[in-house]
Amino acid sequence: MAAPKGRDDDVRLMAALVTFGVTSMILMAVMLLAPVVKVGPSEGELAPDFSAQAYSGGEWEDFRLSDLFNKSWAPGGDGDWIVVQYIDTDCPYCWSEGEMMSQLHSQWNQEVTFVTVVVELGIQGHDSSREEVEAFRDKTPYDGCITNSDCADRPGNPHSWIYIDDLNTRTSGDWELPGTPFAALLQPDGIVAWNPQQSGNHPEGEEMDGALQRLVGGS
Amino acid sequence: MALDTPLMIFIAGLVIASAGGLKASRTDGEEGTKGMIDSGLLFSVIGLMSSGWTYAIHNSLLDSGESSMCASEGLVQCGSVIGDPEWNNLFGIPWGITGLLSFSLLFFLFLSLRMDMHAKWAESFTSYSLLAGLAGVPFVAFLIFVELTQVEGAPHICPFCTVAHLSLIGFLVAAHALRGRKQSGAWA
């Protein structure tokens, strides 16, 4: 009988080590070439990007959050800060927040771009639609906001900023959405500057208006 | 888009690996088998490097909104493909990382075979290589579909992504040829 031709030692461990080494070298080269950017909703991270359909009073149009970012922005430089607000048109707290958002917008619209992302929470009775989103934003008659109210009765003025259709909640995972309403403040370069979930980083009891005053200032 | 240096290197690697595989397919015995393994190994290395490159493009696009590593306009470009927030990841993991991990597995399988082509597990490793390569095909098909129809301003073709796709196809051909050699007794 012919002797087996294979080697006595098992080369698979050595092959695994070589593979690990080669992959690690490539990864290190990548890190040197283009360091990893931390993306997430936490302060100091790059805000998760998304593309979706947006409504600003006319036709629904393509929108991409990162198109608002000014990557060359430096602290103290020019550029619009960004408020990203998440709501559900059937959420009573979001309904009430409509007035505060109107006030914030009228005070800060020169320095801040407002973006409202509309999601549909998986709660019984929370059935939304683009018609409802339009009516919520524009404060026009539509029976269905906060489940069975007329959207025209929403507190605050008609909102003139952009509303995003995320009714299938595609972006909520990336944004680690804790619930609605939720609003974060982004620097002009897209870095999250203020997240209400990180209250330990802020002066005690600070809300969005205080954050805008502290971080954007000058209004 | 101009053929920049990394792309030329990757294309040259694909051509060399293909030529090596073709030559090996016409060579009998152990020498032909080794040549076929070398061809598959080279395909997996090109796959690893091109995946790494796409991951670097991904990072630079996030960092600055643009990348000097690939064109961002036109039919053949990376910006609209790797920069698309909806399609540039698999469950949050950038496709470049997915490619790196996948080609690492393929590289490991073929490197093991190259280091001991007469081992008891050689036959099962040729089968694993073929199966692992086949497992990547639906992903390649999906990514080509995304490039051509789904990303903003489609169709687009990301050249470095295409290099990775071709690397997988090349590896698959090599793995199929090796399995045929093993089953027909033409291994060595």
Summarize the structure.
The complex is a heterodimer of chains A (219) and B (188). With 219 residues, chain A is α+β, with helices and mostly antiparallel strands. In chain A, 26% of the residues lie in helices and 19% in strands.
Assess the beta-strand content of chain A as a share of residues. 15-25%
CATH class of chain A, named: Alpha Beta
Largest sheet of chain B: 2 strands, antiparallel
The name of the CATH topology of chain B is de novo design (two linked rop proteins)
Averaged pLDDT of chain A? 91
Description:
The complex is a heterodimer of chains A (219) and B (188). By secondary structure, chain A is α+β, with helices and mostly antiparallel strands. Chain A has a single domain (51-216), classed as Glutaredoxin (3-Layer(aba) Sandwich). Chain A is 26% helix and 19% strand. Chain A is built from four helices and nine strands; from the N terminus they run αβββαβαβββββα. The longest helix of chain A has 22 residues, at 12-33. The mean pLDDT of chain A is 91. With 188 residues, chain B is mainly alpha-helical. In chain B, strands 1-2 form a two-stranded antiparallel ribbon. The longest helix of chain B has 36 residues, at 29-64. Chain B is elongated and about 55 Å long. The chains are: A alpha+beta (219), B mainly alpha (188). The interface between A and B is large, with 39 and 38 residues.
Would you spell out the secondary-structure blueprint of this structure?
The complex is a heterodimer of chains A (219) and B (188).
Chain A: H1 12-33, E1 51-55, E2 61-64, E3 81-87, H2 92-108, E4 112-119, H3 130-138, E5 143-145, E6 149-150, E7 162-166, E8 182-186, E9 192-194, H4 208-216
Parallel strand pairs in A: 3-4, 4-7
Antiparallel strand pairs in A: 1-2, 1-7, 3-8, 5-6, 8-9
Chain B: H1 5-25, H2 29-64, H3 79-82, E1 89-90, E2 93-94, H4 95-115, H5 122-150, H6 159-184
Antiparallel strand pairs in B: 1-2
Helix pairs in contact in B: 1-2, 1-6, 2-4, 2-6, 4-5, 5-6
